[in-house]
# Entry
Amino acid sequence: MQGIKDRVAIVGMGCTKFGELWDKNYKDLMVDACYEAFEDAGIGPKDIQAAWYGSRESGFTGSHLANALKLEYIPISRVENFCAGGTDTFRNACYGVAAGIYDIALACGVEKCKDHFGGFTMDITDPFDRSMVEWELPPVSQFAQLANGYFNKYGLSYEEGKKTLAKIAVKNHHNGTMSPKAHFQREITLEQAINAPIISYPLGLFDACGLSDGGAAAIITTPEIAKSMRKDYILVKGLALVNGGGQGKLQSDYDFSYIPETVEAGKLAYKEAEIKNPRQEVDIAVVHDCFTITELLIYEDLGFSPRGKGPEDVEAGTFALEGDLPVNTDGGLKCFGHPLSASGLRMIYEIYKQLQGKAGPRQVKKADIGLTHNVGGVCGYFNCAVAIFGKSD
Amino acid sequence: MVGITSYGAYVPLFRLSGEAMAKGARGEKAICSFDEDSITMAVAAAMDCLNGLDREAIEGLYHASTTSPYKEKLAAPIIAMATDLRRDIITADFANSLRAGTSAFKAAIDAVKAGSAKKVMVAASDCRLGTPGSAFERSCGDGAGALLIGDTDVAVTVDASYSVYNEMIDVWRADGDTFIRSWEDRFTSTQGYLPVVHEAVSGLMQKFNFTPSDFAKVVFYTPDDRRYVELVRSLGFDDKTQVQPSLSAVMGNTGTAFPLMLLIAALEEAKAGDRILLASYGNGSDAFALQVTEQIEKIRDRRGMKGHLASKKVINDYTKYLIWRGILPQETIPGPIRFFSAPAAWREREANFRLHGVKCKACGAVQFPPQRVCTKCHTKDQFEPYRLSDKKAKISTFAMDYVTPAPESPVVTTTIDFEGGGRLECYMTDQEVEEVKPGLPVEMSFRKIIVKDGVHNYFWKSIPIRT
# Structure
């Protein structure tokens, strides 16, 4: 089995401002994200041979992207894989190039969340049926179950657990202040985070990410072509996608203190990228902090922290901008915002800029290997994508 | 010998204080929570009645209520499904009268006597609405009673019955009305309740040569306690020693279910040999002479009336009551509501109503909802149905949503693990926020999930075990 390592490269990326973009429609976001990527790569829409378009809420076929960019009769697939849709879109474009079918491919993810009341359609296709007897609540209650599962497993009191989670929120808000395209760009205090109104116990307002409008895009090509286009292209080192099959909902031995899909996707991506010790070898990670608890679980699930020791690393500042392994340097979903299928590409955008040394005031000192992580869905049925990137040779 | 072989009752957990309805009003009444109705209460009473019994042996289910959620659509099959009864049984709804409970009881006795069914369940329930501020609002309570009628292991024999009908407009609710109406008490009591029940009871005693002293206890439907005393005295009973208390001050008048629930309360105190006189009222009266047997001692483990009445939470919030009953509107979020599919609901009926999961024949793993391929051993299509509705469980983890608009906040989601295997993610109800934590023992309760386009959609929720 030949992996993806060093077989494709990113030569251009774009990302819109994320936020409540009341005056923009999803096609505006496609144009803004893709034209930044075209300009960055020094190419135009006519150079694109195939495209993949990720969206859950907006623009239901590839033709919407073709219309927005006036792409002339090229293949465009729409990808929907919930919150991992952005990375999956990117993954498909990479495989198109790696297979030798296309030389230059476009991956674009866009969501207009804020056209829906509250930013999220409650019309979620639940895992089971359409008889409307299953739970019907916002995603926060899925992640609150993880928080209660984690607190219970490691014997954390509400106060202890909340303090760890609040520190993650404070860190991401701090990073967000240095991130001009982020939805939220202000500091918060530990007390604010801990005392914010509860949304779904034990998670409060500042444990949740923003739901935003936004779009991001990437131009993918072969390393050979990339060399002719720019010096600081970025290589894909590993790509993994894993889907849960309901195990956590069907089997009582799952205790909600971790996300098995993240563990498995991490293993696959590390194997492809030939990473043995993620804590030592990964320089920077942008991960799916849809809720603060998710980020805490990711530390452990991706091997950044030993099991149950995530809170100690949070306390030690390991994942802060100046820490050993900076996580969510651009503010994360928490502050950059979360337009579902755009988020994966936004994360790659941050790693791309960091590896190029172009991240401005939030630039980390050492950025040779970067990782992105997405997780979407509900407990037992998560889909999780992990991608690993490295600098050009 | 035909009679009652088992009984069960259900009184909702919540009681609305009299004070909440009218300043200075005494007592309290049982009220359905926002997710309960006459169907869910009937299911709960029937489950109590079926405790420890073989459900395969039940050959009929009669539901009696004036408050079925449907005008056209049978309620009994919903209850039969939720209580996991066989498919090839008699089902019928008895409706439109407070006498429907004893009508169903009589019909069940007759069915068993005639040999058309060996065991027939009667489940009566009501949640009647009085106009806000009215005397009916203060007097009507919610509840359900269930009796299993059979000809073996009879705990209470039905020795005689006598019925009269009486055409008059005393208490009524027209098609399309939300609230019940009544003519003035002077008329309805003196020309309706008192003489009509008197006629049925005295008719029974004359025809079968009973005297008042033959009965250990009388159990009559009653619109109010004062009229109850007046009636029993006029029939020659001692209102101090021979009368089953009406419980109206602790539960309210539970309509169709009322005489059955009072009978169950009387049976909980009765001893073998006791004769009990039961009479209902509603455009006539059905009177029954019953006698308790030794078998009564074998069905004492029901939660019954005593257990349910002792387990309660009193609320003093009238506004909450009005919201729960749908009298006051509630905030909704604009945008699409999830789509309800009748074919999907029908296809999922074994899981949704019976709470049947599956047990893998190869590895024994219990799974809900039913799967085609085993989640543990991956064997395909080797499953047997497995009922979870009567199993105890424990909370694995939970969430409490304070944001989603709902009749009751927070909305609690639980993932629970059943004794004997199986996991279910479901809503929780009837809980106190403080008690919700991993490890809490829970049981299942059949509840209304949503009403949309006139469809009442039911599923199971977890509740803290009622003690």
